[in-house]
Amino acid sequence: MNNKKKQVLIGLLIIIIIISIPIGYKLLNERQETTIKDVEAKSSLSILEEYSDEGVNVLKNNYTTTEEMDFALKNIGKNIYDLKLKDYEGKTFKFSKMKGKKFIIEVSQSGCSSCKIAEPIVNNILKDREDVVLIPLFLNSTKESIDEYYTELNIEKPKNLLIDEEKITKEMFGLTLTPTYLFVDEIGNISLVREGFIDMEFFTDDLETAYKETKIYEYKNNPTE
């Protein structure tokens, strides 16, 4: 890799720390003071180096802070078909059943004010997108608090609602904020991620980017199959 490109990559992960963090509701016992540990920077940098120059530019356009970039690099391209969680009724939900479908995992907490603001926006946009399924996933929430959440918003509780009591996804994806959106494509790969509150224009743009013909992870030299 030439020095110019390396400087750009390092700049993405370190210099942009001065830009603000996305607005969201912190998960319990998470996110200490914003620092860039050497091991974390090297890990993210090594992933970024796998991308072509065009891919780096795409990432720059979509993730403007250090934490956004770090979260994206560590999750985009992951396949989640092996993931199994419990639904609202306590039954096992296998993500492998979603093969061939586009879907969005919407990570929320029942006490998250940002989630409550974003929920109607997301629902309104997706009501005209029959090709994309929304899968709500709640952390740090009881069935009772989830019922209250949807009652307060005057939104019908979704049938495919998941509750991650064991916080499997928190560990698997490194979740620190809610709402968080994981856009998953037809082959089960995460094609885009977004942490924190998003407005209608932002979410619409993310939908287009996540499901366009060329996915972000395909700009890597060895994209996930």
Protein model, in words:
With 225 residues, the protein is of the alpha+beta class. It folds into two domains: 3-76, no CATH class; 84-212, Glutaredoxin (3-Layer(aba) Sandwich). The chain has helices at 3-14, 38-48, 53-62, 66-75, 113-126, 143-153, 168-173, 200-210; strands at residues 25-26, 84-87, 92-94, 102-108, 132-138, 162-163, 177-178, 180-184, 190-195. The strands form two sheets. Strands 3-2-6-5-4-8-9 form a seven-stranded mixed β-sheet. Strands 1-7 form a two-stranded antiparallel sheet. A hairpin with a 5-residue loop joins strand 8 and strand 9. Helix 1 crosses helix 2 (38-48) and helix 2 (38-48) crosses helix 4 (66-75). The radius of gyration is 17 Å and the shape is globular. Residues 13-22 and 29-42 have low confidence and may be disordered.
Give a quick precis of the structure.
The protein has helices at 3-14, 38-48, 53-62, 66-75, 113-126, 143-153, 168-173, 200-210; strands at 25-26, 84-87, 92-94, 102-108, 132-138, 162-163, 177-178, 180-184, 190-195. With 225 residues, it is an alpha+beta fold. The strands form 2 sheets. A 7-stranded mixed β-sheet has the order 3-2-6-5-4-8-9. A two-stranded antiparallel ribbon has the order 1-7.
Low-confidence stretches: 13-22, 29-42
The CATH topology label of the largest domain is Glutaredoxin
User: What integer is the average pLDDT?
Assistant: 86
The proportion of residues in beta strands is 15-25%
